[in-house]
Structure formats: C-alpha cells, structure tokens
Amino acid sequence: MAEPHLEELAIWARQLAEGLAQQGYPVKQLLTQVGLSERDLQGKDARTSFAKNAAFFELAAETTENINLGLEFAQSRDTRDAGLLGYVGLNSPTVKDALKNLSRYRRVMSDALEINVDELEKMGTVYWWRRGLAPARCRQYMEFGTTNLIRGLREVTKRRVKPVRVTFAHPRNARIKEFERFFG
Questions:
Q1: Does position 76 have pLDDT exceeding 90, yes or no?
Q2: For the whole model, what pTM was predicted?
Q3: pLDDT digit string (tens) for 10-36?
Q4: For residues 47 and 45, what is the distance between their CA atoms, to the nearest angstrom?
Q5: Cα–Cα distance for residue pair 175/121, rounded to 1 Å
Q6: CB proximity list for 158: less than 8 A, separation 6 or greater
Q7: Domain ranges for the chain
Q8: Which residues contact 25 (CB under 8 A, 6 or more apart)?
C-alpha cells in the first residue's frame, strides 16, 4: 500500500499529460482514473502524490500500448525542467558531485525518492529507489526516473555516460534491446 503523504513535483506528470493530449488521448479521463485533475498539475511548483504520478505513468503506458513509455519519455526531457534539482545537477563540477548533490537535495523533487551514494567513491555504485509502492506498480515511473538520471548526467558531462550495470526491482522481459541501446 502506498504511503499517502509521499509527494513530489508534478512536472513530469504534467509534461506527460501534455504529450498525450497532443497525440489525441483523453487526458482528463486518464487523470481522473488515477485520482488527479488537470488543476493538480498546474503551476511550476505543483505537487502530487507519488502513487498517483506512478499510476498515471502506468495508465499512460497501458493506454498507448507502449511498454517502454517511461524509457522513451525520459529521453526527450530537459534537465532544466527539474527546477532546483536540475540546476544543482547542471552546475555540479563532476558526475560524482552531481550524484552526491542529487542525493542531498532529492527531497526538493520528491518525498518518495531515496538515493544512496555511500558506495559511490569506493565501488562507483549508486542505489536509487522510491518508497511507498510495490515495484510492479511504479515500473514505468522507475524506468523513467533512471533513464532521466542517465540522460541528465550525459547532458551535464557532454559525454555518453554508460553505467556498468542497471537493474530494476520489477520484471522486464520484453523490448530489452531498447534499454541496452540507451544505457550502453
């Protein structure tokens, strides 16, 4: 069961809703199905529940019949849209600093987001997860977030950052080549 108090910025849900509307999908109806309204997404500092954001991404993937919606949507985002967190990332002198800053300031973006960089210096490992939902209920949102992180690091460094390994807690057994191609 989701923790109802976990909130985050609505920017990605708003951008997804805008993209779906441009493609002719019934956005108002989709938002209503997950307990959101267009008004919930208005304003650059609008916040919604993590569970509703995740549900909206899952419903969007189902509606568009695109099991890689999170992966694909993240590749077209702009780091500056992440507000303060994007600014901190873009102005970090190194990838290590960007990851440490992301961990330090993550609550600006989301109450559900957890980032552990304890093994970053020694092992080069970063753990990233969201509290409050079972992995299967936030699959698209986790794939979006991870893809968005790597895309943002590439933007910051002007290099094709390639993680050694990316794993998800949820099952993924279709269209894996697209993930391999993006992550390298």
A1: yes
A2: 0.86
A3: 899 999 999 999 999 999 999 999 999
A4: 6
A5: 33
A6: none
A7: 7-67, 73-183
A8: 60, 63, 64
